[in-house]
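QA checklist item 7 of 12: single-chain prediction sanity check.
[x] sequence parsed
[x] length recorded as 257
[x] structure emitted
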Amino acid sequence: MKKRDYFSKRTKEISNASYRRKIIFSFLFFAVLVTAGIFAWKWLNHQPTEQGALKPLRKTLEANEKILQKAVFDTSHLVKEYPEKDAVKNVRVNGLIGMEKTIDTATWRLQVIRAVGDTLKLSLADIEKLPKKHLIFDFKCIEGWSQVTHWAGVPLKTFMDYYHLNAQEKMQYVGLQTVDKKYYVGIDMPSALQSQTILCYEMNNKPLPMKQGYPLRLIIPVKYGIKHLKQIGTIYFSNQKPPDYWAERGYDYYSGL
């Protein structure tokens, strides 16, 4: 056999052997991954539930919240706003939980709990007299849709300053409930005080339709739609996380964009 043919044959044998080793290693590695995945899945599903989610998943969501809230979120960063011509006329409704069919503004009052036994009760007129802000932005729903929508109301920061809620601003969270208390959210204070967060009473330059939260709803562009509570009945403040309807059902408490 010629020397060149010998080396060619030897190289081919080494190459084939190396290829076989790589295939065997790949199959073994894949088998280990599948086995580990099965054990991890069984372990996860045997973990206790915490706030509507399996405990390891809830801890992951909380870690993500800390990163977003403390390391990423910046109150000076504004959500993109659009010209009025871009706002849709037919605005989708992102949920009707906790919505009463009718609200009589003659008797409705926004209850702002400053402390135990100290509740401020405000009419819609009390809120409408404050400086109005128009906000046209891309409203995002966790169901996967978004719309450029036009809202107007008083910035929550302006509202809190006007009614001397400065001590409450230093707390960590704001809690909101619908009039019937069947829907409720908790919001971190930095997001609540962001300049585009408004107590909204108008949509497309008209009073809010009943199904959109009449007489007053929250618009908070840095959050998904599940945080934009409609038909606000009560606002309160806390250094502990207030109850949150969807967080209790396994969703992310922070729900930030």
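[x] summary fact logged: The mean pLDDT is 87.
[ ] second reviewer sign-off
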